[in-house]
Specification:
This protein is an all-alpha fold. The chain has 9 helices and no strands. Helix content is about 70%, strand content about 0%. The chain is globular.
């Protein structure tokens, strides 16, 4: 690959690494696996960068990340039953100087992350792409490869499930 192509790749694709990681983290539910998958996705993007056609680089990279996540999940299906226990749990237990407000915010965020992580993949990915990444319905449609109507339907059902799981009373607009 020519130096000029590498520079173009760095300029166009690399600014979207945080978004790629966020999507992978939500889909895989593990920060280390997400890092590995994003690394693999970026290498694939670089390898096939000559196929990129000056469209939305963010959507293009997120599509590659999504596909790498799905491949990773198929390969590691049996590992899903493992329960992660990291240093962050120990840190939270040992820091008794936390203010009540901070503790409540962390609790609410943890509950929201848990509820999102329990959604089926097709709902979780549209929620993350829309509400976390801020993609349009069209961009989400391009990333996950389904019609825009399906995106809107999945998003509505995902929001309804989230509201229900969080104990919120949501009524349909009439």
């Amino acid at each position: 690959m020519a130096q000029r192509d590498v520079e173009r790749f760095e300029r166009i694709v690399l600014p979207h690494l945080d978004d790629a990681y966020t999507l992978a983290r939500y889909l895989l539910r593990d920060e280390h696996d997400a890092q590995d998958v994003v690394q693999d996705a970026v290498l694939r993007a670089l390898r096939y960068f000559d196929g990129y056609r000056e469209g939305d680089a963010r959507a293009w990279l997120l599509t590659i990340v999504r596909n790498c996540c799905l491949t990773w999940q198929r390969r590691h299906r049996s590992e899903r039953l493992a329960v992660p226990f990291g240093d962050d749990v120990i840190d939270r237990v040992s820091d008794s100087r936390e203010t009540d407000t901070l503790a409540i915010e962390r609790s609410e965020r943890a509950m929201l992350e848990r509820v999102v992580s329990e959604l089926p993949t097709e709902f979780r990915e549209v929620i993350v792409l829309r509400e976390v990444e801020g993609l349009s319905y069209k961009e989400i449609s391009d990333v996950i490869g389904v019609p825009m109507g399906t995106v809107m339907s999945r998003l509505a059902r995902a929001r309804k499930r989230l509201a229900s799981a969080l104990g919120l009373d949501v009524r349909e607009a009439s």
